[in-house]
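Subgroup meeting minutes
Present: P.N., E.W., G.H.
Scribe: E.W.

1. P.N. recapped why we're keeping a running log of single-chain structure predictions: easier to compare across weeks, and new members can see raw inputs and outputs side by side.
2. G.H. added today's entry (323 aa).
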Amino acid sequence: MDFKVFTAGKDDAGRRLDRVIKKIFTESQINSNIHGLIRKKLIRLNGVKTEASVLLQEGDRIEAAAFLFSSNDSAKEKLTAVKTDFPYKILFKNPDILFIGKPAGINVQPAASGETSVSSVIKDFFSSADSLAFTPAPLHRLDKNTSGVLAVSMSMKGARWFSENISSHKVQKIYLAVLNGVIDAEETWTDSMEDSGEEKNFRTSKVFLNKKGQTDTAKECITTVKPIKSGLFCKKNVTFCQITILTGRKHQIRAQSAARNHPLTGDSAYGGGSGKFFLHAWKIKFPEDNPLLLPEEICCPLPSDFDEFLKTNLKIQSSADII
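Output recorded in log:
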């Protein structure tokens, strides 16, 4: 009997055999019968019968009977890049982590079945060279209409380090945004917030200013806002700001700014008027001597329409000169 052979990479080490097999096969009937195939020795490990729950080691050979693969069903290929026309700007890349410039107008994760998202594009273009089961994927979210720096895992090492350091606030995220009204001095907003549910087919977040009246399910949110320049848009005051979030809550910037009567200009979900809002994930800063050998910071330039808004309405000829 002929067998196809798949070699476990370093990111497969410590994973259960049956869970890795589910990633190798794509046909649902195979996934549902993995234990039976292992018992019948149609799937073997290093040439011998094994158990579905065995933990893999790097270099293990997973052998699957060739007839299990239909002509239209292929196993995962170990590629570092499967296309050349990657649609997003690559800001930084190494074997463990990738940083891209996400454009506004696309979801990081699909909102509906079959929808093109950053996650689906990443999956189509990249696979891990160190794993049969690990799939590169975005490590955090940006709203659909938010642009800027987005981190993508390229290995388990990269995924774990970034997630742990985001949780411990050792990785700092800095945004640029246009807010309604005038903000004339740096402010730090320390509030709490929770999901307020569905409103007009869109889930918003409720803010408890200075944590007053907060519920048991509300979580702390801390945001620092530094004004850069104020001006007029449609005869109303607006302020271009640098915003640093010390926590990472859903809609944190949008909800907290709205709660203080400074919603993002054009953010209709939070009372900022109609049109398009400008919120850009400008920069991510990293601790020194990090094991991923990341630079001190990774920055994503403003998109052209944001830059044009600043030139037209705030008379900022080059945003690079003032940020």
